[in-house]
Amino acid sequence: MPLSLLKNLIFVFKNRNKQGINHIPGDIHYCILALIGCKSVLTIHDLVFIKNSKKHFDRFFKYLLWLYLPVKLASRVICISENTKNEVLKYVKIRNIEIINNPIDPAFVYSKKEFNSVNPTILHIGTGWNKNLKRTIMALQDIPCHLRIVGKLNEEIITLLKCGKIEYSNVFNLTDEEIRQEYINCDIVNFPSEYEGFGMPVIEGQATGRVVLTSYIEPIIEVSGGAVEFVNPLQIESIRNGYLHIISDKQHRDKLIRNGLENVKRFSVQSIEKQYMVLYKTI
């Protein structure tokens, strides 16, 4: 067992609440091993830790310590979306599982901005394998815009941007406030992901009052409330047509923004807090 895991287990064991409820809100699922005999809640955001494991031993190690044992030992398992719940149940059959969505940071508030239909700023958050940046770049060729990318770029992506003659800028290691400002500055939030556990940028964009282009996949269908420009993330032409539709149709944009602002109300901190308080009282 890696030393960092052992240190975390020791810390949790020493600080466990024997009379109350111990809640592991994600990532360090294995720490529930230090809570045996205590009331515990485990929140699972996604199963990317398994999907990212290429070697058989690493995959089994993550499955055992991050999924199987934690969900079997937890008093209650919380998934942040129906999609995550269904994925968990494919691997482990349990009954003590339910859905409570992630809340949105109340700092994300509506900020009015005149849409730049001549040269819109398209905000792309994340450069991981699932964020679909390559197809985004290919879909944007010959569309006048400024692509604002948050996340470190590798040489392959930089070459693709240059070959496609994409006007772009790149930032990373931003503070929370700087991230919020990126949403305010943009015209379109770009999120054509291939895989997500929830899709927080979708509701962050909606809360800011920006039109969101995203994938027609779960859990984004569930989370977005349909108030987005849906595309097929595996088809460059579909992504491209989505941009063109947003840029050319003001009535469509305005409708998506209105519906998006309505959709995010269900993700307020107050709403999610009430659901957790009800849950805690049942354990």
TrEMBL record:
Pfam families: Glyco_transf_4, Glycos_transf_1. Keywords: Transferase. The keyword Transferase applies. InterPro entries: Glyco_trans_1, Glyco_trans_4-like_N. Residues 23-107 form the Glycosyltransferase subfamily 4-like N-terminal domain. Residues 119-260 form the Glycosyl transferase family domain. CDD domains: GT4_MtfB-like. GO terms for molecular function: glycosyltransferase activity. PANTHER family: GLYCOSYLTRANSFERASE WBBK-RELATED (PTHR46401). This is Uncharacterized protein. It comes from termite gut metagenome. The lineage of its organism: unclassified sequences, metagenomes, organismal metagenomes.
